[in-house]
Amino acid sequence: MNGGFHQAVLERADAAVLVVDPSDLGVRWATPAARRLFGGASGLLPDLVANGDSAAVGTFLQAVRRAGASRLTCAVPVEGSAHRRVDLIARDLSADPDVRGLVVVALDVTGWAATADELGSRLNTDALTGLASRTGFLPRLEQAVRGGPGPVLVFLDLDRFKEVNDCHGHAAGDHVLRLVASRLAAVVTGRGTAARLGGDEFAVLLDELDEQQAIAAAREILAVIATPVTLDEGVIRLSVSAGITFVRPGHGAEDLLHQADLAMYRAKTIGPDGVAVYDQDLEDWALARKHQVDRLAERLEELHAENRALAEAATIDQRTGLPNPATFDADHARRNRVGEPYSLLLVDIDRFHSYNTLYRYLAGHETLRKVGEAIDRSTRAGDRAYRYGGEEFTVLLPATRLDGALALGERIRQEVQRLGLEHRGNPGGVVTVSIGAVEVRAGASVTDAVEEASVAVLEAKDAGRNLVVGRRAGG
To answer: Which CATH class is domain 3-108?
Structure first.
């Protein structure tokens, strides 16, 4: 293949590639994609990025000559739109007589960056209470450490909280944790930061206080939290133990959490609603030392488990293992914005309420899992199946017209029926599904597509169930 072939590929491919003069960092050559991304790609490359990143891009390009290859993320202004997040990957080919410059590949990662920011926000927020999570709280504590002495860390642990879960159930326990979090946030607002570290443990970072003020603030927090909680099952009386330590130079965030934790366990020996201040002598307290080691191992495992569960819960339905409704909504919105035709399947298990009545909910959960597996293995490469909620599933079919959607819907319908899952309340005696297939044309919204799919499912139900019915949305 000759140079003309390579030139043609670069000119026609949707790849942003630039050749930069190593002496003045001016753009000597750019592919059409690069010219679109950089508004013509004329001039010095550092001048084509956002003002705040110009110096960094200049330093990055100079460093490429020493390192040979390097990478940098920057912002690129786009007329009439928000800045794009772009990864620059550069390599020094100055010694190549055919190039004699720095080759820079620009990758638009705006979408990925937004997704990463969203996931970061989820990881930094406790899903149950809405407070900062341990992952989100630690950087704030580290920032307080760097700011110098003064702030106070209070470690809080609900006394005998296991009894709440054992006597009233985990749903009641979760309700109590959310209520404690709201009370804690209300009393701390404007004075510091509150976080749920995990389980029944909370932490508060308060503004500068002396020891007496810190103890008074901790007692105020304990009094607010201790207000009885009234449930249908009865009244729950709460008490909290608090350990206090002060931010000091030379102590990192984990050191401070350890100190406040140790003081909190000392407070538990005082009695309900106890408060203790960390002192170096506590390090010699043998029982606390032993407990510290045990708790550290438990916490590390809890943290890993919580992070794994949070990352999975953000995208996966725990019942079926398929992507969850939130993932479907995000994927569907992205697919719809592209403006290219696609199809959507809405799959509904027939007479599933009757199934749960006859076979109970555990069997219903297992049937959801098996039906989800049947749908997933029936899809083609590029398709994606989701649990939509209740007994409903969805499938996104990129670049698929109605006839293709109907064919895949029929394949799914047959695959589910072949499972042979007993259902005495359904004609034929086995579990079946009704499917709405919708071709989504340009101009149709996400809501239009889902509503048309719902209508198609209802038409399939009205026609006798265990059928696939097609419709079109838009166009």
So the answer is: alpha beta
